[in-house]
Design a protein that fits this description.
eight-stranded parallel β-barrel, single chain, alpha/beta, 14 helices, about 400 residues, five-stranded mixed β-sheet
């Protein structure tokens, strides 16, 4: 019993072809689905057998199911005409070319779900796009494409064409985290517009800004930087579950919990972050022994994604917090962020000390030349993810 799945998108405009298909033996779930598709009709989604010409079905047999509800005969003609012919020809050619083994053609069935946009008009494009997409989907199905390693490699590098953005993850440190501890939304937006786009820049919405405008100030900033990673610095000290959920509901990518909070509050916050799919950062500001504090959190059964070693503004002349970075990473296997008076000339030292995230505030947000200030820091970061990568398809 075999059961394989393939998908492909080819073309552009209203005639773009998107094919999802299942190919499997008649004794597999594919065979059951094939029979059900032909025997259980649905209004506007009438299935049809792929034929090379009237009275000549393909081998393996294929049933075509329209994804978009067919509302008139003009749409029906596109499905029954160029789309059907394209799918049938692609299957026949796939057998001839060995993509589908010829000796298995009698054993397999194919279920192809076909997208035809209601505004599609050009029959030639519909035919050629659906032919290419069906053949590619079959090839991918028979090769079990993609493998898991490909998915893991691409997941943080890919944009969906109908979404136009990606969900950023902190998978490629070091990062520059720009902290907006301003109290004016207008000033924040003005500074944000001057910051060059980079895969290695993330943004912290500081506590003063959150207190003045609320968690959903993120949505205003996403109008400027929709793809960016936003950290909501709530410095949670109580009701960890509630505040983390507030951050997640506001579309934050990460939330900051104070390391001074009760262990139960920290644990609840981290668990809620895991539940909602955002990162939890524990800020060790004013925590006398960060490593001992982390041990207590770990003993409670959780760990944050990021530990922030934070030197407050009033004590920036004291021992640098990044001295602990390697010890924290070695024992707890977390990302380490450092904050407190970091200037461009010491960034390399901080990264070499083990920092994954360099947090900078006033040195950028109060700079006369914001873009220039950012570039003085980012010169120590890696190139953008896709800067040297050319890819249109697989």
């Amino acid at each position: 019993m075999e059961f394989r799945i393939g998908e492909a998108l080819i073309g552009e405009g209203y005639e773009v072809a998107h094919v999802d298909l299942i190919i499997g033996t008649k004794d597999s779930p594919a065979g059951i689905a094939f029979a059900n598709a032909l025997s259980q009709l649905s209004a506007g989604h009438t299935p049809l057998l792929a034929v090379l010409r009237p009275n000549l079905i393909t081998k393996p047999p294929a049933v075509i199911i329209p994804k978009v509800t067919i509302k008139d005969m003009e749409q029906a003609e596109l499905i029954f005409g160029p789309a059907q012919a394209a799918v049938a020809k692609a299957i026949a050619d796939a057998v001839e070319e060995g993509i589908i083994p010829k000796d298995k053609a009698e054993d397999y069935v194919v279920i192809a779900s076909i997208f035809i946009h209601p505004k599609a008009k050009n029959k030639h494009k519909i035919y050629y796009y659906n032919y290419g997409a069906t053949k590619l989907a079959l090839k991918r199905a028979m090769q079990s494409f993609p493998d898991v390693d490909t998915v893991l490699y691409e997941k943080d590098r890919s944009y969906h064409p109908l979404v136009g953005r990606k969900l950023t993850k902190l998978w490629d440190p070091p990062y520059l985290q720009i902290a907006f501890d301003l109290t004016s939304l207008e000033e924040t937006i003005s500074v944000l517009k001057q910051i060059p786009d980079s895969d290695h820049i993330i943004y912290e919405i500081g506590t003063p800004l959150v207190k003045k405008y609320g968690c959903e100030v993120i949505l205003k900033l996403r109008e400027i930087k929709p793809d960016s990673f936003f950290v909501l610095d709530l410095k949670t000290l109580d009701v960890g579950k509630l505040e983390v959920r507030m951050a997640a509901d506001a579309t934050a990518n990460a939330v900051v919990i104070s390391g001074l909070a009760p262990i139960k509050t920290i644990v609840n916050g981290i668990q809620e972050a895991e539940k909602t799919g955002i990162l939890a950062c524990v800020d060790m500001l004013n925590v006398e022994n960060p490593i001992e504090r982390l041990r207590k959190i770990r003993d409670a059964g959780v760990l944050p994604n990021v530990v922030e070693l934070h030197r407050p503004i009033d004590t920036e002349a004291e021992r640098p917090p990044w001295n602990l970075a390697k010890d924290v990473k070695k024992e707890f296997n977390v990302l380490v962020a450092v904050a407190g008076g970091i200037r461009p000339e010491i960034v390399e030292e901080v990264i070499n000390a083990g920092a994954d995230i360099i947090i900078v505030g006033r040195a950028i947000t109060r700079a006369k030349d914001v873009e220039g200030a950012v570039r003085r820091f980012t010169r120590y970061m890696k190139p953008d993810t896709d800067q040297f990568r050319i890819m249109t398809d697989f």
